[in-house]
From TrEMBL:
<protein>
    <submittedName>
        <fullName>Uncharacterized protein</fullName>
    </submittedName>
</protein>
<keyword id="KW-0732">Signal</keyword>
<feature type="signal peptide">
    <location>
        <begin position="1"/>
        <end position="24"/>
    </location>
</feature>
Amino acid sequence: METKHIVLNVVFFGCFFLLQYVSGQTEPSYCFRFTWLGPEYDNTSTLLNTTCSEYLDDIRAVGVPCRTPFVVTYDGSPPDLDYLLDNYRDQVTCRRTKSQVCAKFTYSFNNEVQNATYMCTRAYTADRGYETGGCFKQRVDAHDVEVCLCESGRDPCNGASSFKISLVLITILACLKFVLI
Ligand SMILES: *[C@@H]1O[C@H](CO)[C@@H](O)[C@H](O)[C@H]1NC(C)=O
Ligand SMILES: *[C@@H]1O[C@H](CO)[C@@H](O)[C@H](O)[C@H]1NC(C)=O
Ligand SMILES: *[C@@H]1O[C@H](CO)[C@@H](O)[C@H](O)[C@H]1NC(C)=O
């Protein structure tokens, strides 16, 4: 075998094992998991010490995404995710399994956010199959419902407004460049 081929093979298998190592996710992965009840609730609202099924029953909602704990803020503004992560990490995150993605569901009316639910979940669409990333929008009863999906590492990704480029993608690009030279 020519030296050139041996070198190429070494580079190829080096990249292969590096990819396996990076994508093997040696670190556990987490997503945010909670429901922000929206601007109608503030620190004067009675504390909701209840389950999603009781709550949805009370407001007569069916098939609406919901995850406890319920989060309300002093003035009804959206929650500070860094603050939640720093002070209540265990309560507001879930551990993501390999078949799951992080999801954020947002309900808006006339461009004002009404509430948001964060969770670990499996994502599937009939026309495209399993989904691992991106945002999808739909109008339901005059409300805009948006779901954004991503796959995170140790820090939840479903709070960011723009999703970070994953380490895996960077490695793939680096390897491709190497092989093409
Ligand atoms: C709610 O928060 C406001 C400040 O934003 C404070 O003045 C008020 O005392 C709080 N009310 C209760 C019931 O904690
Ligand atoms: C919430 O409910 C649980 C179980 O029913 C109870 O143990 C707990 O004391 C309640 N907390 C508050 C703040 O009401
Ligand atoms: C979020 O808002 C929508 C529209 O007002 C409502 O139908 C839904 O039940 C709400 N979800 C939660 C968890 O409160």
